[in-house]
């Protein structure tokens, strides 16, 4: 999926930056000017231009803080517009996360803004890679988690280490998925939880880092410090704190606090990429699933559930693409979620849909909503269509009742 992003000032339409992913060629300046001009023309005549669709493409405009306009040109995926609007929201909040709301709302020196805003490029590029990301949080509006038998033990280690950092905000991540976190970390908004995880995963690997961050909802104008420490390959502990302690001071404490947890950390890491503990056994026809809890802003997803030997199985990247695509077709059309605007489509039905499925030549997929949960399950074509409903319900019950699944 190709995407071309443009960020301009609202007043003068001056381009601040452009980013692109996929096979789209850079748009010439006259085209960028025309896209902005048609949006301004509509606004000057009392009309808000939100989206336009061409053959194979979609263009979406969105303004923020009466200061910047974001325009995205992306491939048409036949999904509800709420999803591409959520993408623009994530990009805007990524700008706040690393640049600050006050600086965005009051752009006094455009050239200086262009230079300083480059600090956001790496995270924005990562978000634009949405069809290839190993996690699903950018599309579900819920942070990815990983379930393991060691989480209860590791919670104690995390709480003690976070306290040493003079903070209440701490979490342990495995390849960008939250394994355990403090109560205060979980109190962050869905946007903040998602962007912090994406930020850690988007940065180059290193033993430790100290990154200034603005929390888009909690502290959009006053920066905090995000400290991360690599405990082993793929496993990071993260803390949000104030001016103290220094990175070097806390780095000296890592070995003392986490040395005794080495075996538990190693076992936790081995749960990836299945993301669920070995004691959980699901139907052998399941190739992948997405379990989202809209109330807790958490999701548990996997495209490596079983060692599938079926000749009809498909690879992990394709499974991830199918789940993402189906999620975006269902949410906003049949089901509503915490994504703003997703409630518009479902209200057009005379009844409230609770289940839906699709059968193709290469896979079958089933979606179910129950209370605060949305559950999407990808099956091989070997499963009888009549059995999908009962297997999906049984699998959901297994997952939400397991003590190690903290969703």
Spatial order of the strands forming the largest sheet: 6-13-12-16-15-14
Radius of gyration: 22 Å
Q: What is the typical, i.e. mean, pLDDT?
A: 94
What structural class do the secondary elements suggest? alpha+beta
| Biggest sheet architecture | 6 strands, mixed
SS strand fraction: 25-35%
Helix content: 25-40%
Number of strands: 16
Cα(first) to Cα(last) distance is 30 Å
Order of helix and strand elements from N to C terminus: EEHEEEHHHHHEHEEHHEEEHHEEHEEEH
Shape: globular
Q: Which ranges are low-confidence, i.e. pLDDT below 50, for 5 or more consecutive residues?
A: none
Please count the helical segments: 13
Describe the protein's architecture and organization.
- With 407 residues, the protein is α+β, with helices and mostly antiparallel strands.
- It is 35% helix and 27% strand.
- It contains 13 helices and 16 strands.
- The strands form 3 sheets. The protein has a 6-stranded mixed β-sheet, with helices on both faces. The chain has a 5-stranded antiparallel β-sheet with strand order 2-1-5-4-3, sandwiched between helices. Strands 8-7-11-10-9 form a 5-stranded antiparallel β-sheet, with helices on both faces.
- A hairpin with a 2-residue loop joins strand 15 and strand 16 (373-379).
- 43% of the residues are buried.
- The mean pLDDT is 94.
């Amino acid at each position: 999926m190709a995407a071309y992003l443009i960020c301009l000032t609202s007043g003068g339409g001056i381009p601040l930056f452009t980013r692109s992913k996929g096979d789209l060629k850079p748009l010439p300046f006259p085209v960028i000017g025309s896209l902005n001009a048609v949006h301004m023309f509509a606004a000057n005549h009392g009309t808000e231009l939100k989206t336009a669709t061409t053959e194979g493409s979609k263009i979406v405009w969105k303004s923020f803080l009466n200061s910047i306009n974001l325009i995205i040109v992306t491939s048409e995926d036949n999904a509800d517009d709420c999803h591409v609007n959520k993408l623009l929201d994530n990009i805007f909040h990524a700008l706040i996360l690393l640049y600050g709301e006050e600086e965005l709302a009051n752009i006094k020196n455009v050239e200086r803004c262009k230079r300083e805003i480059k600090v956001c490029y790496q995270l924005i590029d990562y978000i634009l890679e949405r069809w290839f990301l190993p996690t699903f949080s950018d599309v579900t509006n819920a942070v990815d988690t990983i379930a393991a038998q060691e989480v209860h033990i590791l919670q104690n280690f995390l709480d003690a280490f976070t306290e040493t950092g003079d903070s209440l905000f701490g979490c342990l991540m495995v390849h960008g998925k939250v394994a355990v976190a403090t109560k205060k970390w979980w109190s962050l908004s869905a946007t903040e939880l998602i962007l912090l995880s994406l930020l850690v995963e988007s940065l180059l690997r290193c033993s430790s880092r100290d990154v200034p961050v603005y929390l888009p909802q909690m502290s959009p104008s006053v920066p905090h410090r995000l400290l991360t420490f690599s405990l082993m390959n793929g496993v990071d502990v993260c803390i949000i704190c104030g001016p103290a302690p220094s990175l070097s001071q806390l780095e000296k404490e890592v070995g003392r606090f986490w040395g005794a947890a080495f075996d538990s950390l190693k076992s936790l890491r081995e749960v990836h990429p299945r993301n669920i503990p070995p004691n959980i056994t699901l139907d052998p026809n399941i190739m992948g699933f997405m379990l989202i809890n809209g109330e807790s802003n958490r999701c548990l997803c996997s495209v490596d559930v079983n060692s599938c030997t079926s000749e009809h199985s498909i690879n992990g990247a394709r499974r991830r693409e199918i789940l993402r695509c189906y999620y975006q077709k269902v949410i906003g059309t049949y089901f509503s979620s915490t994504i703003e605007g997703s409630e518009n489509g479902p209200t057009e039905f005379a009844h409230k849909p609770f289940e839906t499925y699709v059968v193709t030549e290469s896979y079958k997929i089933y979606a179910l909503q129950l209370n605060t949960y949305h559950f999407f399950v990808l099956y091989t074509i070997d499963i009888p269509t009549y059995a999908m409903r009962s297997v999906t319900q049984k699998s959901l019950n297994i997952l939400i009742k397991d003590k190690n699944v903290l969703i």
